[in-house]
Amino acid sequence: MNHKPVEGFSKLTKQGKIDWLVNEYLEGNEEYQNILKQYWNENAELQKLHDEFSENTISNFYMPYGIAPNFLIDGKLFALPMAVEESSVVAAASKAAKFWIDKGGFKTTIINNKKLGHTHFIFNVEPHKLLHFFNFSLKKKLMEATEDITANMRKRGGGILDIKLVDKTSEMPNYYQLKASFDTVDSMGANFINSCLEQFGKTLKQEVAISEDFTQEEKNSLQIVMNILSNFTPDCIVRAEVSCKIEDLKDDSGISNEEFAWKFKQAVTIAEIEPFRATTHNKGIMNGVDAVVIATGNDFRATEACAHAYAARNGKYSSLTHCTIDNGIFRFWIDLPISVGVVGGLTNLHPLVKFSLALLGKPSAQELMSILAVSGLAQNFGALRSLVTTGIQKGHMKMHLLNILNQMGATEEEKQYFVTYFKDKTVSHHEVITEFNRLREGK
């Protein structure tokens, strides 16, 4: 297939973009036009709102929006909104919530809420000379230069917390950073942080240019490489935990409470020491976290990047959750680095995001951090509970059954038949196909 590049694609109308795509890549097949348009919202204004969230938009991509009820978090009962396409995620979270509701529920603690950003620059100068300049002149100038940018944030109780000069010359010649920490209150704060950092870069250049501390050759060597926030926020941490007496760990799988607690702890320890297991283990945690992150209009890519960087912070990729058994008490917890907002971005625009935040009682950013950590912990508890008892496939495939049947064009009557058929059996793709064909042939 020899396709031609397109000029001015972004300037085409939405219909123009679709026509070009269908004609250039899809042989003019009208069916593809219909697929795209059937996902448009009938409300033209609402569709226009969605179109303007991103660039070159031609349709909407739907994800299931589900609810996981019965989450007792810090004494309050929540129903969590979850936008996720994977079978069994919402069911597992709901089951874990129900398991812990009569055992005190989930407890959370905000350990810190600092966010970070850096001005990265190259400067061929002695480190001690730059440090003196930073301490006795530059730091104050950086704060003053950003006063207009930070005014509104400071009124809300946030702003720039600190600025440090970081010497990275041992890792890369002449490389330094201005490392700043921020409190962005209820916003995720990306635009605020980046605006401050870009001003840092300008101020650094201006102050070096007029300083008598440096030679002209040194001044000429200064290069501002970039000013950008970091999505790694190891100082923006929330802890969520559950605990109870081992005798209260009643499980319907048939094994004793003691065996369940022991196997569960072994499973967590394996994830702590074995990166191959930790990767899948943490992926399951993020099933729960990301589903609520998406439903509340936050950035799940940033959430993922931060969580996985934190999991590898000690030089080896490890579990985000931990478990202890001491004096007959089972304790399971997560320390999750996460930066989210409840104002700005999609939170004031997307109708379902506004619904999600209303459903959660219009939480502050810190309260949303707690909810997200709980969702991840619950998801992990549900997965490990299955793994150490009945196995993961029994529950997962039962949830996946409808997907298989829909692919095969099953009727509602046939779907009900299969739900009953697999009531006491483990679902397998092969078994579904075999029984489906037998059922159809017998008609």
Automatic annotation (TrEMBL):
Keywords: NAD, Oxidoreductase. GO terms for molecular function: hydroxymethylglutaryl-CoA reductase (NADH) activity. InterPro entries: HMG_CoA_Rdtase, HMG_CoA_Rdtase_bac-typ, HMG_CoA_Rdtase_cat_sf, HMG_CoA_Rdtase_NAD(P)-bd_sf, HMG_CoA_Rdtase_sub-bd_dom_sf. Pathway: Metabolic intermediate metabolism; (R)-mevalonate degradation; (S)-3-hydroxy-3-methylglutaryl-CoA from (R)-mevalonate: step 1/1. It catalyses: (R)-mevalonate + 2 NAD(+) + CoA = (3S)-3-hydroxy-3-methylglutaryl-CoA + 2 NADH + 2 H(+). Pfam families: HMG-CoA_red (PF00368). Belongs to the HMG-CoA reductase family. This is 3-hydroxy-3-methylglutaryl coenzyme A reductase. It comes from Chryseobacterium oryctis.
